[in-house]
Amino acid sequence: MEALTTIVEQQRQFFHDGKTKNPKFRKEQLKTFLKTLKENEQLLIDAAWKDLHKSEFETYATELGLVYGEIEYAIRKVQKWAKPKNVITNLPNLPGSSFIKPEPLGNCLVIGAWNYPYLLTLGPVIGAMAAGNTVLLKPSEIAPSCSAALAKILNAAFDPGYFYVLEGGIAETQALLKHKFDTIFFTGSTRVGKIIYKAAAENLTPVTLELGGKSPCIVDQDAAIKVAARRIAWGKFINAGQVCIAPDYLLVHKNVKDLLIEKIKEYLIQFYGEDPQQSPDYVRIGSRPNFEKLKSLIDPAKVYYGGQSDEKDLYIAPTILNNVSWEDKVMQEEVFGPVLPVLVFDDFMETIALLKKLPKPLALYYFGHNKGKQNLILNELSFGGGTINDVVMHISNPGLPFGGVGNSGFGSYHGKKGFETFSHHKSIMKRADWIDLPLKYPPYSTGKLNVIKKLL
Ligand code: NAD
Known about the structure:
By secondary structure, the protein is of the alpha/beta class. The protein has helices at residues 2-17, 23-39, 41-52, 56-81, 119-130, 144-157, 170-176, 190-202, 225-237, 257-272, 288-297, 348-356, 371-380, 415-421, 446-455; strands at 85-87, 96-104, 107-111, 134-138, 163-165, 183-187, 207-210, 216-219, 249-253, 303-305, 309-310, 315-316, 319-321, 339-345, 363-367, 385-388, 402-403, 409-410, 412-413, 423-431.
């Protein structure tokens, strides 16, 4: 772990030297970042195939393409974002001026998850770089080829004092957490999120926690069922369901449940064929423990479609579980895999009341056209973010900050929000000194108090 200490010290020195304060420097680094990724795109695509059986299409469309877009956006905006923003100066402080000056937090630690081994590791780095920080990135050991590919190409392209990819697992993460950082950005489970938060508290280090949870997908009886089925079949089974914002379970109005699950099944066959194990587009489970867990969540008596698995290949078929109840094992923890439990509801308001009592999820989806019900969902329920009449898509708009609330985490990023998350917003007032009213100075008097009462 000596090498680790050296890197941390190097990064501290690099930040201290002040180069990253210059927005032009940041812009140049973002350009290098983009160029490096693009030049090594095939290596990254091959690594995702090796680790997760992830197709070139998915690696591009759901990871690299989004990362490129975000970097390009940051390149265009970074100089504007970095400028001080004037704000109004209130009457008692006139004559004077006030502004907010964004400044980098300093040395950042980014700890990533394996399910989107590029998007979830590189995404936060964009905001950190744009805001003028140094970055130590620890990708997940569960996607080892992706982690190695990132380390190889990025460590060759950047000064390690500025940006370094440190590979490793739990031991390395724990060693990292012994060091003091100026912020820690963590993506992963709620369980490990608590470990990170506790370690960060030792140094009063601010953290962003991008965690998970059980994200409900409600389908009402007035929904466009065919479109809903196609969108759910895609959003639940893309990346074999290992998506933090995948619909975890369906809550379907009882009148449309049979039609909905029949259509989801039809679309799954259209997408992945009669034997999804043979499909080049169907992803594998990231790790053996997750494979075992998912197998244990499949109750054979409730399988409506799928249910097959192959341990050698870490394959779990797209699976729909019908007639599921809140007491079933699959409803006790986040699924994080290609198993879709289906529950029904009859009374909309009862459903809302029930969801209100559950931990706040990372995402929530509602299919239905009634504006009143849509608003009820948005007003009554707390969740990280969501999409109406679709699933997952809100993550793809950089104009929408992405993050959780409550058990699903706190803090957010994407687009300008990423820059803000990695910045301190320094509030400054400049005062004129050609005048100095005696009002605030002792000795106080009733007259002075009356003026203060009018001014404040
Ligand atoms: P994880 O929490 O097991 O691992 C994430 C990271 O933490 C890895 O880099 C790992 O090395 C490290 N880690 C693991 N155990 C540790 C320990 N005991 N001490 C210190 N570090 C440790 O998560 P995962 O399995 O990679 O991902 C699955 C979870 O992450 C799901 O709950 C999912 O919903 C969530 N997730 C959230 C988002 C999001 O953006 N909010 C994205 C992807 C995944």
